[in-house]
Amino acid sequence: MKSKLIRKISMMLVFSIVISVLMPSASFAATTVMYFKYQPIGPYEYEPVIDGYVYTKDPASVSVRANNSDNSVTLITTKSYGEPLYDDNNTQYSVLRYYFADSNMVQAPLSLTVELEGSTYTLDLVWDSDRPNSYSYQSDLSLDLGSYRMPGNLLLNTVTASTYLPAGSDIISFTPSKMGNREGEGVVIQLPCNNSSSTTFNSDSGVVQMSDFEVVDVTANSIVNITHFSLGEDGLLTFNFLYSNLLIQDHEYIVKLSATSSGDEIMLPPDGVYTASVKAGFFGNGYPPPVEGDIDDVNSVYFRNLTIGDPSAVPSATPKPSATPKPSATPEPTATQKPSVTPEPPVPTPSSNPDQVIVNGESLKNGTKDKVTVDIANGTKQVLLPAQAVEIIGDRKLELNNDKMSVAIPEAVLKKLQSMVPADKLAGAQISFAINRVSESDTEQLLNKNSNQANLNLKAAGDVYEFKLSVITADGKETTLSQFDQPITLRLKVRPDANPALLGVYYVADDGKLEYVGGQLIDGELVAELRHFSTYAALEYDKNFDDVPAHHWASNVIKELAAKQIISGISDAAFAPKQQMTRAEFATLIARTLQLTSADTAVFADVDRDNAAAGAIAAVNEAGIIVGRSATIFAPNDPITREEMAVMVVRAYAYKNGKEAEIVSSYAYSDRKAVAAWALPYIDVASAIGFVRGQDNDRFTPKQVLTRAEGAQVIYQLLKSN
């Protein structure tokens, strides 16, 4: 009985996570008022389940009934309350979250009947194509819901489209009006955007800097010190502030370009109708503040149906900067963006083999200045190109696409392939790109094989592919390229309902074991860089621990770090969040976060070569992030103190971003005198960038030992920093 109860509780957590993905975050997108899902018994479902939510002004008016195929009716009763959202008039909407498990509900109900605020709605059954035997029930009702609406105005001059904002231009004003018990430490500004165009930032290196912006406290007639800013896709602008200079309730603020800016930082989008927004609040010290997920954006203001220029005009090509600027913290994969239209793409030549396409050399002369794109049909298993392709393509990348995936092959890899063919055999030789989509049944077997951990829910977030890159001479001899001198960029399309925080690209070894590669979610695609070809899968890795319930303050952080294979439990089922973290454990987390490796494991006398953390300790030491207690002693099993943690994480931050963080001011912790002199400047920096904060009575407690949950939170801040 106890085992069944534990499994049922575990499934409630899993389904709670699924619905939290389906439910909208506090944004200006339309919110579906009612949504439910039926999931039958499966590898991770011990009972059939109906899970869903309803937004309502009157929770007492809501009831939900399932209309079964045998004409019986089941009352859906289990519910909890989520955080409320607000409409444009600041009317509060409560969210009722439903989770109903019933072993007798072996078939999906034909429909659901929802009584809501005096009206009756029938939600018909819709098959979920992404999840066999799963069904959804959704109404057509939608509302523009978000966080509490605060006063604000868009101050942009929107008369002329596709123009840069002049230096000193006011951008937006807002007045935080509902802070609760927390002060505002960040602002997320969505500059005008719509489904096809957006405000853009000048992508030329060094043009847009933090000093180009000002946040003015109009009420206090002062400037708010910005500690961090970032530029995101689709005109997203974020700021963070010092603890000593946070946003104040009922103060009016204006965000503007500074008088010293160059006037070529921000370009308005083409003629059209757009939406813009501002969110202000407490973001958990994220740098930059996250746009989605577990954030407390307690104030917002939205500007809908915003006209820029002449909406009736046909938008012209957006001048420089490019339409998709690179965010400051985005790694290299974003440099390869798919243009909506590729001029004169190479046209594959039909082959007698329906699974094969041939691209001739003449076609490869087309493309853009950055890349040559070859579009291939779904189901194509081989693309053949001339071995001399690199001489035609030059320093551009070769990109091969279908609807579900793409690979971008750099010049160095094409050169390597050509070099594998003797000069006297180049004539008639071809480069072969082989692609094999793994069947759904084989994918399911793969997932089942790797889901033997306790509390692990492993799902395919898209198709699984086997890739091979080789060169074939005219006599049929094939030579495979096993390693790449430069990485190939892989993009895998993922399901829209997949949880972004839990996604990753995994290499599938010959024995079926999974190896985490990485990956960043960009425009609905998981992007990763590969050093070799084999079988790769985009997976959703949902790991729970028995001692970290969903309501634990570090639950989401631990779950995301576990999904990225940065952190693990002390066993399959236990994480031990209150257990002391050792110096070796913290060094290992830093090495995994920064992807540091070392061939040398004999750095400190007290770290044996066979110590599981030896390689990580050596790598982090080589990077200058850690030092030992002495030249020869590291003390790997000693608990790490908060002041030691501050030193390590600030050095890791500098290593990751290629620059030292500035010390703006000293933090007046009440126990500052207890901090070791060597740690003081690092604690000031760690406080300024939001990695640490004081505890009770404004104490830093430098000698206090870090727990595993606290260590996970600090590493998460490092992971998200830029």
UniProtKB/TrEMBL annotation:
This is SLH domain-containing protein. InterPro entries: Cell_Envelope_Struct_Comp (IPR051465), SLH_dom (IPR001119). It comes from the Bacteria. Residues 541-604, 605-663, 666-722 form the SLH domain. Residues 312-362 are annotated as: Disordered. Residues 342-351 have a biased composition (Pro residues). Residues 1-29 form the signal peptide. Keywords: Signal. Pfam families: SLH.
